[in-house]
UniProtKB/TrEMBL annotation, chains A, B, C, D, E, F:
Keyword field: NAD, Oxidoreductase
The name this protein goes by in its record: NAD(P)-dependent oxidoreductase
CDD domains: SDR_e
Similarity annotation: Belongs to the NAD(P)-dependent epimerase/dehydratase family.
UniProt organism field: Piscinibacter terrae
InterPro entries listed in its UniProt record: Epimerase_deHydtase (IPR001509), NAD(P)-bd_dom_sf (IPR036291)
Lineage: Bacteria, Pseudomonadati, Pseudomonadota, Betaproteobacteria, Burkholderiales
Domain NAD-dependent epimerase/dehydratase: residue ranges: 11-170
A GO term, aspect molecular function: oxidoreductase activity
PANTHER family in UniProt: 4-EPIMERASE, PUTATIVE (AFU_ORTHOLOGUE AFUA_7G00360)-RELATED, NUCLEOSIDE-DIPHOSPHATE-SUGAR EPIMERASE
Length: 271, 271, 271, 271, 271, 271
């Protein structure tokens, strides 16, 4: 017996990106039409039930068109690493503004916003913090994600547009370095978290860390229960191999001291 | 007996603006050279002890030149009201980034950053909040000030540049409406607060509301004591006249419900 | 091998009520004598090991007699829905006072008091609260349960009578509406919670939400661990059917905005 | 030059009581008509600008008539000491319900509710508490004041009726015992606090301790600043005489241990 | 396939003590060399992979020698019960100072310090506390453990030596009394906790309660997740037998009121 | 008219020390007999109303004799600077234990204990902390004062002996360095604080920073109001001269970064 999908039209931005590519096939069953978008036409090309609308997020008119007829958005678009300010500015600041303006004009009611753990990357790895801890971004990328969290708060208080800000950890097929033992978010857990964020009955505006059930954690993430998320995976089974194959970190290395890891010494790039 | 000024060269941006114009003559004695700057050459023209460097904050190279040789900055520049996004973007986002990049390159150690109470304008007037309450900006202007607070936190954590973020209330010669009975900051108190922020021995990165000793307050501002600020003025003596000359607010009016007053229904302006 | 029951004489009030009827057979093994009571003689009639003492809670002398010889009380009696003030006054205010006075006079040491989530029903569904959050009752019924919590606190501070206030969610055989996906408390979990509250070694005066391990929760209920409670059931398996058979809630409907659901617009009834 | 009074018709209940009698002449100038009320016709009889409406608070119809045409209420009525439950029930529970129902029916927008420090009387004298500390009433009187605070919260959340709950300390012409050195509220400070509570622009529902600027305090009362209250008096000048004329308290005496003083061992009275 | 051990040389103090004896064989595989130490030569004598260095902790020079060449320390040494002050002074105050001085001189980077739940034993059993609650030691033994926690904090802030303070509950093969139903820490869970404390990537200075997953708990121990600890055992299966074989506690007995149990009335011993 | 003194016999330890010498003449009027004590006989010799009992705090029997017949103690004795561990051990650990044991044996009910701001000296100068912040001592001296605070807490919980722990700032006739602008406690304010601590009706066990009303403060000291303390002096009038005569601190100097100033790099002294 088949049930009807959760949404009529669901928009996935950044669909050609690394995590967008992970989510794309997994979101397909959740909507009658999955609108996928990135700067360029997608490859592989659209499947049945998909429609592809290439779009530059910095182009206000294009974003307005992109959002027409959409029930909800999973916003993975934009830059997801430290970069030159001007690039971040266009993608993550202008782009996010364009998205929310379009949501307002078209009456879109919910956004899942890919924020980042780098909004708090300057906390130490020996601290456990909650999502409402004062922000300590570790670079311009992190600052741009702060902007998205604040802007979406405004659109909720002013217009009632609900947003779940997911401060995504490190979401890869496998654990790649020691820091990821704490920050790992499996692709399945990411998918489940996005689903919770889209379907929880009433989310208002909230901020949640996206992280699997790792043995060592830096984030007190109890609010995730409000969304109904329960992690299924963990970095732990990958620990032994990882530790055998990577050198001991230098305890004086800022990348080993702060939660942001290598990001804390990366920026700012000179334009 | 004369003492030497506090700084060799102090920079005041936005010197032609409303509050910049208030501060300009009051800062003159604090430095051997007061560098004043706005988009256009200042009028009245420079006095002895001043130097005028007109500068568009969105022009990275110009801001770099502006900051050369400066000991500390009082950053009043940028837009200080709700406006179109593109204007705010250039002045308050690009401009602030340019300022901190220039501070980093020239080794400037302290900035007094004019933030705004509009970063928390969507709290209700019957709530008392602290500076570390989660932000609830009431417009794009407020969101841009959030950006400045986060960016300056990054430059402190990464490079040790100290910033005092002053969430300035309503600083006018007199109380102009009922909301200002709570948010009033006299020009003398503003001056004193800027002086404390410039001279307190160690400020790290901190956030303080700028408000006089008004009878009704919305902000628990005890951290101001860390800077040594003690308000001297109050809105109270102006209450009777103000209330006699202004109508009762409509209790259903959002401008009377939220701390941001009229700002909460102002934006966003269509570009 | 059989062990002796937990209590000699255990009193269950409201035994003819909906939840009282659920608990009655489940409590039978915990005491040598289960005293059951409601306004009217119980039907089905008493089993072996039970004794039936009908009693109007508003009748002080009757309640005093009811409590004689009792080791502990599970107080499910009184009104458990919004109602006219005068009815609530007699059952939930006068009645609870009578109960604690009788406990004091007879030296009863512990009460499990059926409070209600409606003492905090005016929080929003997108907020997660703890049991010590300021109360926000959603009706006269909720206010009466606040009274019971405060009165029992007094009897603990003054006379050492221990009380566990259980803010019971929605305890039905199955989930009946969308709100219950968050507030559902299975009959088995209710039973287990009552047992924990009766037998935990030292409870003082405490307040706990009574809720199963539902996927979406509104209440941070960690203190329940102090009592040793671990939920076994969840509303989640009933979600799909429920959502298929009920319309989408109107997001502007107060019953969909506040935790109290329909209660928030129900009262006060005109007497 | 004369200004118009603050209210057209202001109601003072309990006007014949101890504190009602203190407030009566002081409130007279704040309204065109001061409606005064107690169980019996007032003596001294009404002055110009007063109207006397005797009323039993437990009489719903009488209270409804009492509240007609009223702009705001200072509710000093009811019992203000430990008493038999049935008396407290009628005055402080039924009576307060009647008051708020009448406020709702007549559209009265603000109430100043005389709560009491006895809602937290079971805290120790060596603790400093805030108004949002969990309640620990020290008697049935205190429990009844909890009821009034919760009920008024409901009428605010449901109908927007604003209430300032004043947890009045010990308001007498002079300090009468050692406990009052901490709890003293001068008649002038009481008057000023009532005025603040009536006139602060937006109070929502809030709870404030009513206490002068005594040297030793038990209550962290910063929220009073939101109302604009600044104490003018203090118990300190009366200390020497008081201490010379009263014996050292027995440190084992509960009245010397708990904030509620003698109240903590007073009740409950047997009916 | 065998992996290399976690440490080259790991030191276990108090190896002849009750818990030291439990840990000794379990730590053997974690290091190439397990240095074991107590006041007297160990029996049973050393195994392969062990070296035995008897040492009086109060002997500074001996402790200095003991710590040479050590990578990490599990400090179970000292007195672990209430005792005369002079004995505690030498073992738990002078001894701990000697240990940290030696760690500093030899560059040892991490210590697992056996603190005790008795640093907070004067909280009541009906309270749930977090590790950062103000200390309330229940005897001189508890005070000496406070000293160790503070001293190790200093050595972290000053010299970067990391310490995990484990406030160990009651770690025995089986539950021996009713208090242990709450405080029980199985030997396996103790072992696992020590392993987490030794190997978690970055612990800074932290304080964790050591307790199994018991049904009734007094300690909110979420920070343990930062170390990656998950309890595997529980006191619950031993409850029935225990309760059948021990009398009901007297509710007026301080040992039944306070978390410290019998310790709260034990000291101070007269010297 | 003369009133009787506050105490019959008041003990001042450390009476020959720097602050003991300040307090000695000021305490004389508060007691019929002021017992003064230090390691050596005092000079100047005793005045009328004084009695001199030289005593080594590490000598248990001598301390027991010292405390006989005493109503209250101002414990200024012991070492008040960083020192070798063995010296601190005898004076500040053994000595304090001896003092409390003697208090217990003789029924002394209140102690004013000279603790120190160095129990939290490893917080940064740009942080504002409360007395209940986790301790971060800046040396062995600070650790020893932590010990005194914990030990006195135990004697309160166990035996009801009240203690006010005064974390004294820098109490000198004048401000001597830039750090003292924040930590200055005038001799008059010290005196007043000691008086409050001795005479406040019920202090339980509490911790207060001892600091004048300086313009820049690091400590949120509101609990001092519970004792009735109001600072009369401030470091501010001495600022200009001080700043003119001392060099700018090096911002990288730990003494300028941490609240403990030079203490943070002083210890531990090699024995």
């Amino acid at each position: 017996m088949s049930s009807s999908p959760l949404f009529h039209r669901l928009l996935l931005t950044g669909a050609q990106g690394r995590l967008g590519g992970v989510l794309r096939p997994r979101l397909r069953d959740w909507a009658t039409v999955l609108r996928v978008s990135d700067r360029v036409p997608l490859s592989p090309a659209v499947h049945e039930g998909e429609e592809d609308l290439p779009c530059d997020l910095a182009d206000r008119a294009a974003v307005l068109a992109l959002m027409e007829g959409v029930d909800a958005v999973v916003h993975m678009g934009g830059i997801s690493r430290e970069d030159r300010f001007d690039a971040i500015l266009q993608s993550n600041i202008v782009g996010v503004f364009n998205l929310y303006e379009a949501a307002r004009k078209h009456g879109v009611r919910r956004v899942v916003f890919a924020s980042s753990n780098h909004v708090t990357g300057f906390y130490r790895q020996d601290e456990t913090i909650r999502p409402d801890a004062a922000r300590r971004p570790d670079g311009l990328y992190g600052v741009s994600k702060c902007f998205g969290e604040d802007l979406s708060r405004y659109y909720f208080d002013r217009f009632g547009i609900e947003t779940v800000c997911l401060r995504i950890g490190a979401s890869f097929p496998e654990v790649r370095d020691r820091r990821m033992l704490a920050t790992y978010l499996s692709h399945d857990d990411l998918t489940q978290l996005v689903r919770c964020a889209l379907t929880a009955p009433r989310v208002g505006h909230c901020v949640i860390y996206g992280v699997s059930g790792n043995k060592h954690v830096w984030w007190d993430n109890r609010q995730a229960a409000h969304l109904g998320f329960v992690a299924k995976d963990s970095s732990e089974p990958m620990r032994a191999t990882l530790e055998a194959n990577t050198p001991e970190p230098d305890p004086q290395d800022p990348a080993a001291i702060y939660q942001g890891g290598g990001f804390v010494v990366m920026g700012p790039f000179d334009d």
